[in-house]
C-alpha cells in the first residue's frame, strides 16, 4: 500500500475533514483519522488538507514522537518528478532514529 504513487493533483482532491491527505517531503499521508486528535488542533492540519505541509511540519519543530506517528499514516509517495529536491531524512523514511541528512 505504501508503494502507491499519488500525484500532487490526486492528493489535492482529498482536502476535507472527512478525507484529509497531506504531503510531507516525498510522501503522502492519509491523516483523516488523526485530524481531531492532533495536539496542535484540527484547524491547523486542515489548512494543509490536500496540500504540502512539509515546511509547516518542519518549522514547528515536531518531536521524534510526532515523526514516528506520521509514518503510521503513510499511504504512498509522490512521483519522482514531483518530489522536493532535498534528501528525505531517514527518521521519516524508516521510522528509526537518526540525524537528518545534510542538504
Ligand atoms: C500529520 C502530520 C502531523 C502529525 C503526526 C503531528 C503530530 C503532532 C504532535 C504529536 C504534537 C505534540 C508535540 C510534539 O510531539 O511535537 C504536535 C503539535 C503541534 N503541531 Fe503537529 N502534527 C502534524 C502536522 C502538523 C502540521 C501540518 C502543522 C502545521 C503547522 C502542525 C502544527 C502543530 C503545532 C503548532 C503544534 C504545537 C501545539 C502546542 O504545543 O500547543 N502539525 N503535532
UniProtKB/TrEMBL annotation:
Similarity comment: family membership: Belongs to the cytochrome b5 family.
The keyword Lipoprotein is assigned to this record: no
Topology class, membrane: Single-pass membrane protein
PANTHER family per UniProt: CYTOCHROME B5
Originating species: Caenorhabditis remanei (Caenorhabditis vulgaris)
Superkingdom of this protein's organism: Eukaryota
A Pfam family the protein falls into: Cyt-b5
Main location class: endoplasmic reticulum
Protein name listed in UniProt: Cytochrome b5
GO cellular component terms listed in the entry, alphabetical order: endoplasmic reticulum membrane
Molecular-function GO term, any one: metal ion binding
InterPro entries for this protein: Cyt_B5-like_heme/steroid-bd, Cyt_B5-like_heme/steroid_sf, Cyt_B5_heme-BS, Cytochrome_b5
Keyword field: Electron transport, Endoplasmic reticulum, Heme, Iron, Membrane, Metal-binding, Microsome, Transmembrane, Transport
Cytochrome b5 heme-binding domain residues: 3-79
Compartments (UniProt record): Endoplasmic reticulum membrane; Microsome membrane
